[in-house]
Automatic annotation (TrEMBL):
Superkingdom as given in the UniProt entry: Bacteria
D-glutamate N-acetyltransferase-like N-terminal domain residues: 52-125
Naturally occurring in which organism (per UniProt): Roseateles agri
Entry protein name: DUF1611 domain-containing protein
PANTHER family to which the protein is assigned, alphabetical: DUF1611 DOMAIN-CONTAINING PROTEIN (PTHR40690:SF1), GLL3100 PROTEIN (PTHR40690)
Domain D-glutamate N-acetyltransferase-like C-terminal: 132-328
InterPro entries: DgcN-like, DgcN-like_C, DgcN-like_N, P-loop_NTPase
Length: 343
């Protein structure tokens, strides 16, 4: 698994929009204490709100890595960024990137990193172990966020649930499976970069044996209903061996993102499909609730939608950005208490 050196200096260069800066903004939202400041060019159109810092200032303040927090169109690394990256390497900082361009494919940067004794961390392109899944029952508890589609809140739900559990005193660890999640937590695996035969095996290693009352909160990827990414979702589901699922859904989405020919499934259909697939490695798997991205709904419409779903599914329904996930944490906390009483 990747382990990143914190704290970070966020590189936002000549960022033009919040969409381009979603990685940087996500880090500021979820691990603000791990971000010392930002490095922006004069023509940058926005700020993360963190202090402006030069490479030298960040190094003097104890930064461990320069983290590329923006994604230009196509995921390529623009040539005019290279001097800033070289400055960071020369100052003793690792470079962390989630771009399609590999840092290790840039000879000048590779030579400088070797001379400085620092790491070039291509989060999207890690050298993941080639291990196959075993299906062996592991100790500890696991909850996985799954979804009716991609990009609708699986990461945010997992992060919010981890915090809510920890606030209740439940031992819980966020397990990152995507590049931004890895950057936030400082460790994990970009599961969509793993060769398909080994996704389940790597997922098993990501959430190993643990104490009986400990919960790994595993960030989901893709969707069983996405024609392109269902394979990643299924391998992660089997390898995670979750005891609990949280189904994530976008209230305003009628079809799979960018694929209008594929309607999003109903929530009962999606829940049963994930449970059915998950029973291969954990016969006791269950769905403990639904997490909704309700950004398309006004307050009254969200309240009505939530009440309707709760009545239909007989499950807690939450939005992590609109009221939090406390009801999901309560289900897990109650389950821990019941398990302890039985033991």
């Amino acid at each position: 698994m990747l382990v990143l050196r914190k704290p970070y200096l966020l590189f936002i260069g000549d960022v033009r929009s919040a969409v381009d800066a979603k990685t940087a903004l996500g880090l500021v939202d979820w691990c603000p204490d791990d971000v010392l400041g930002e490095l922006a060019f004069p023509r940058a159109a926005l700020s993360t709100g963190k202090p402006a810092m030069s490479v030298a200032e960040a190094a003097a303040a104890g930064a461990g890595s320069l983290l590329i927090g923006i994604a230009p169109a196509g995921g390529a690394l623009p040539a005019h960024w290279l001097p800033s990256l070289l400055d960071a390497v020369h100052a003793g900082l690792d470079i962390v990137s989630g771009l399609h361009t590999r840092l290790t494919d840039i000879p000048e940067l590779v030579d400088a990193a070797a001379a400085a004794g620092v790491q070039l961390q291509d989060v999207r392109h890690g050298a993941w172990p080639r291990v196959t899944g075993t299906g062996r029952k592991r100790s500890g508890q696991r909850v996985l966020t799954v979804g009716t589609d991609c990009a609708l809140g699986k990461k945010y739900t997992a992060l919010a649930l981890t915090r809510a559990l920890q606030a209740r005193g439940v031992p819980a660890t966020f397990r990152a499976t995507g590049q931004t999640g890895v950057m936030i937590s400082g460790s994990g695996v970009a599961i969509d970069a793993v060769v398909s035969d080994f996704i389940a095996g790597v997922a098993e290693q990501l959430s190993p044996d643990n104490a009986a009352d400990h919960w790994d909160v595993i960030e989901g990827q893709g969707s069983l209903f996405h024609p392109a990414y269902a394979g990643v979702s299924l391998g992660l589901l089997h390898g995670s061996q979750p005891d609990a699922l949280v189904m994530c859904h976008d209230a305003g989405r009628r079809h799979i993102a960018s694929l209008p020919g594929f309607a999003t499934p109903s929530l009962p259909t999606a829940i049963e499909a994930c449970l059915s697939a998950g029973r291969l490695t954990n016969a006791a798997i269950r769905c403990i609730g639904v997490s909704v991205n309700s950004s398309s709904l006004g307050e009254a419409a969200w309240r009505d939608y939530r009440e309707q779903l709760q009545a239909e599914l007989n499950l807690p329904v939450v939005d992590p950005m609109r009221g939090g996930v406390e009801s999901l944490a309560q289900v897990i906390h109650h389950y821990n208490k019941e398990s302890s009483h039985v033991a």
